Amino acid sequence: MNKEIKYCDILLTNGSVVTVDDERRVLEPGAVAVSGNRIAAVGAPEDLDHYRAARVVDCTGKAVIPGFVDAHTHMFQSLGRGLGEGMSLYPWLSEFMWPYAQAISTREAWAGVRLTALEAARAGTTAVLDDHYAPVDLETTVGVARTIEEVGLRGVTARGIYGRPAEVTRHYDIPDYLFALTPEEELEITRAAVEATAGRRVSVWPSPDGNFIERELICDSVALAHELDVGWHIHCSAPQTDPAAYVSCYGERPVEWMHRAGLLDERAALAHGVWLDDNEVAYIGEAGAGVAHCPTSNCYLADGAIRLRDLRAAGAVVSLGTDGSACDHRQDMFEQMKQSVFVQRLTTLDPTASHAEEALCLATREGAKYLGIDAGVIAPGKLADLAVIDLNRVHLQPLNRLVSTLVYAARGSDVTMTIVGGEVIYENGASTKVDEGEVIAEARARSAELIERAGLHGLLSPWRERPDSGAGGADGSSSR
Ligand SMILES: [Zn+2]
């Protein structure tokens, strides 16, 4: 029977298509037709031979997967890549990240964001939640969202909200300058930023930035998210000390309070959620709230291991995030997938605690749910957010089992094409959207200026430990 001729914009054909759809189909070979910003059809190449495409991409020897969702990153931090080695979270914040955040200018933040977005696009990431907390004026915040768009990604700029120090703040060595705006100013700027980006590829959400700010401001931020019909974001219990400080101050744990205050629902996008008790896991699960798991960051800062199986069994939407280049060092979701499995296996001593298929789901379809975007799977009608991976690389041979190879052996630099909403934003070694040489040159120059101005040059020491300090320099004799 002759099929009716159909037209599409891009036809990716003869690749191995890992759909991550409801049936978890892997088509070897498969084809994907893209029409406008959506996927028009998926199937075996012969099933789609009636499509006439403006552009046919032969994907022989390549994998086609849903684009990755980086559910928690801090793009402005990339100018500090490599600094702050060997610290736990709060020294890392007070000696490195907070001075960095205090000193960074609008232009520097945009340069860092542009670099990070470019790195992500090159590694097959199509959507991000960028937790942006410095500087947080309206112009910078909206400019951050626009910069991510310029590079071609979609997603959210979550505007960090601090307001006034809270009772719990004194448990931390948090500098006053983070609390520069009144709660009213915070909410006003956030509202304006959300409205200025409504309906765009990258929109702004409120991000009351952790459980160390005033509870009332967290509640008001969540109310604003509801009013403006967007999600909201918060750092939640990454280090063990966070719930401990909360209990000593308020007599209850952070997620217990958020549950009791009625804040948890599907709009809630929590970052980390490492230290949760059974009740907190149940509350997050019942609410269908999101948790961005950042395994590499949790290892780097020695925070701990998330209760992945418990959270997912309870109903939480668990996604994966890099947590930014300052504590992850790479915007590479392949690394997150691998680490998410390894962290579970190592801490449970159970090799069945997680697996490659689960990691790929977290990085794609669960990430899309977390961000509330109609993507994350390769299925007709979904947004055409896709990554194409070269399977002919030496480190991927012999290719016996595709999903395991993608999760454990592949890396961001194996991506040859990234497509967002039907638009090719990266192809064969170059961004189609920005001049990579200019992005890199600007980031280098602005990084040097920023490190100097922030007084962080002490962190540049080429070798951190003294040769006589023993294994790993664990005597605290760092040169910082
Ligand atoms: Zn973070």
- Total number of helices: 14
Task: Indicate the CATH topology of the largest domain.
Answer: TIM Barrel
Number of strands: 17
The CATH homologous superfamily of the largest domain corresponds to Metal-dependent hydrolases
What's the structural domain tally? 2
Q: Which structural class is indicated by helix and strand composition?
A: alpha/beta
- From the N-terminal CA to the C-terminal CA, the straight-line distance is 74 Å
CATH class group of the largest domain: Alpha Beta
Shape: globular
**Beta-strand percentage?**
15-25%
Contiguous runs where pLDDT drops below 50 for at least 5 residues: 472-480
Largest sheet geometry: 9 strands, mixed
Rg for CA atoms: 22 Å
Mean pLDDT: 94
Share of residues in helices:
25-40%
CATH architecture of the largest domain: Alpha-Beta Barrel
Present as ligands are: zinc ion
Please provide a written account of the structure.
- The chain is α/β, with parallel strands linked by helices.
- It folds into 2 domains: 115 residues, Urease, subunit C, domain 1 (Roll); 304 residues, TIM Barrel.
- 36% of the residues lie in helices and 22% in strands.
- The protein has 14 helices and 17 strands.
- Helix 8 links the parallel strand 11 and strand 12.
- 55% of the residues are buried.
- It binds zinc ion (ZN).
- Zinc ion binds next to loops.
